[in-house]
Design brief:
- By secondary structure, the chain is mainly β.
- The protein is 5% helix and 38% strand.
- The strands form two sheets. It has a four-stranded antiparallel beta sheet, with no helix packed on it. Strands 5-6-7-8 form a four-stranded antiparallel beta sheet, with no helix packed on it.
- A hairpin with a 5-residue loop joins strand 5 and strand 6.
- About 5% of the residues have low confidence.
């Protein structure tokens, strides 16, 4: 019996998620890697930002080698249109409808909004590699 079958019968106490932080539900709108860390960030129409680990050599043979390390809601009502990841991998800038939101990603898998920059129709965002 699969986990989906258990959930359909109401036996949710036997249900455990395949990925702790789940996958995106909706169209993925942006994916950006960090250059000094083995992670990449993605955002989707489900208004979430996910941080994914690059697979190790042992994980490459698995059916889903990328594992989500962190999942957070970007906005309560706006979709993320674009992303930029700091080269060191500890900050992510997300473009929303009327602002650029900067997230600080801490090693303890907690995150916080560092600041919001209000702009009219922001089009792109990038970090300098130098």
């Amino acid at each position: 019996m699969s986990q989906a079958d258990l959930a359909a019968t109401g036996q949710v106490e036997n249900f455990s998620p395949v990925f702790e932080h789940g996958t995106h539900h909706g169209l993925v709108t942006a994916i950006k890697p960090a250059f000094s860390r083995r992670v990449m960030a993605s955002c989707a129409e489900d208004r979430t930002l996910k941080l994914w680990n690059f697979p190790t050599e042992e994980q490459e043979a698995l059916p889903m080698p990328f594992t989500p390390e962190l999942s957070l809601q970007v906005s309560a009502y706006e979709n993320c249109k674009a992303l930029a990841m700091h080269p060191l991998g500890f900050q992510v800038a997300a473009i929303l409808e009327d602002m650029v939101r900067i997230f600080h990603l801490t090693p303890s898998q907690a995150s916080r909004t560092q600041f919001d920059l209000q702009l009219k129709n922001p089009g792109g965002v990038a970090y300098s590699n130098s």
